[in-house]
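Data deposition worksheet. Section B asks for the primary sequence of the deposited chain exactly as it was used as input, without tags or linkers unless they were present during the calculation. Section C holds the resulting structure in token form. Section D is free text for depositor observations; keep each observation to a single sentence. Incomplete worksheets are returned to the depositor.
Section A, Depositor: J.P.
Section B:
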Amino acid sequence: MKKKNILYIACALTMASLCSCEDFLDKDPQDKQTNDTYWQTETSLRTYAQDFYSTYFKGYNIDYTVFGGFFSGDNYTDDYINLNNANTYNGGYIYFPTSATTDWNSKTAIWKDHYANVYKANVMIEKIPGMSISEEAKNHWTGVARYFRAMAYSELVKAYGGVPFYDKVTDPADESLYKNRDSYPYVAQKIQDDFQFALDNVRVDDTKRQVNRDVVGAYMSRELLYHATWLKYHGTTVGPTSEKVGDAEIKNLLQGAINGAQVVMNSGKYAIGNTYNALFTTDDLANNPEVIWYREYTTGLQCNALMSYNGPEDQTQGGVTENVIESYLCIDGLPIGQSPVYKGKQDPSIQKSFQNRDPRLYQTVADSLRIMSALGTKYTEGTSPTGYPAKKFLNDEWWAAGLDYCTGILSPADAPCFRYAEVLLNYVEARFEIAQVGGAGFVQDDLDKSINQIRTRKLTKWGETEAQTMPKVQLEGGSLSANGVVINDPARDADVNPVLWEIRRERRIELIMEGRRGEDLRRWAKFEYLNSEDGNGNPNKIILGAYVNMADYPTISAKDKDGNRVLFLFDPENPTNKDSDKGYIYYLREKELRIFKKGELDSERYYLRAIPAEQMTIYSNKDKEFTQNPGW
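Section C:
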């Protein structure tokens, strides 16, 4: 393994005391920095700014929890059954929250942490004009501060909707601090203004592992696409009090997303390569043309635990669902319900259904059944409650060699915080959406710059040497085609345009288990995709795993020595049979596990968290009004 140089991130001299305790003595101490003496050089600014990085660039994190949003860290998705604290109602991964003061709503870290960063950014913005540095440096560092302020407000708005917006340092005694919420559209526009200033002023390059213009553009494309589409599909909030947002406002935000993406796309520095799994399992991403921003890990200094969960250990935190497996296209570019080369129609087992599929499937999950709950399974080879163990984050060569990197918190694999493929997917979705609200029409060139670039990637299946690519897509009126065949997915949501459906599919597959799916369902107002049951009370495939016919696995037992079933299968052809020996793995069998009723406030409220009870109490004690989110 190549030895890496790591940038040590300095703490900002306990900046809380530096920034908030002015005038507490008549004279400044001569042996330490104060708020007045600190702001002198670019080195001071660089040190101060490092405090933001751990919040917004978590990578794979450094522990066994949720891996910074990768793998099991996404919330409320149809891609992954997350079992973390599933039976305690505390995790917020399986169940929707039950009240304004329990579950995820009882957690105040989002509110506190991001407002703390708003304050720190405002301090930085306030101090820069008085510094003796060049105008270029002032603009750059003001851009960095406004970028992080945009990131902080973006996270707040995604969680709570409209929130109070502060663009200057406010004294705790100032009554203006306790103002009511600003509207979601208002704050979204302020976020865009900050991003645009940063895009116009942050340096193209500012030394290793520091925010640069490409990083700003990439995150700008992600965050503004989120806000534009959330406001389009929800309005100003949720429930009956929500108001429609005008096309001009949505168009403006979408254009911001496009502007950010184009800065990255036009830089000429990035391209889609011929790797996929290696993007997530390599110890040095410094020169990878697909990676815009990454978190660096180094043996002996700082490592992560993600690979251990994708190798020797049972994937007890959850597993990939049958629903997302069926979303992968066939190698001819057609969905499984349409493609003549799909082999799983009569026998949907892994052996059959994995044939002739998008090669990203083979680099994402194992192509053999590995059931966590079945007797006889080799637990040392990694298993999953759905039978589909993830391999996206496992370095197969390290695993085969028995290296310690695949155990404990010892993986030195760098984490790609932002990939070029996502920029392309943000761009193409924003281009399609802006065409619906008065922007320039969506054309073939938009596809050629985005999805068709991703589809130039050549990948090999595990254990094979022949590389494969997915066919490019062509715009055919109101649909897309592959190899001259118009795509007509029988599983398409009838409320979603056929072109947009395929754009969203490409995003789902390319970015699976990278922390984006939960946000996507939230902004598209599609939590009904998460329902655990159909209209007949039978389980949906978002909580089912691989198809198993026990006759095909004579060495695996579905029952223990006393005859008690340990592996439950749901057979769609015989749904009432609870002792079936064929069907889809049915790990979670609780009835009405997750039910969302579109249009009803009791369900729609879940798109936003409740304002923390602690915050409501603070306002109440000040005799100030603070509006709670609808339904809480």
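Section D:
The longest strand covers residues 291-295.
The longest helix spans residues 135-160.
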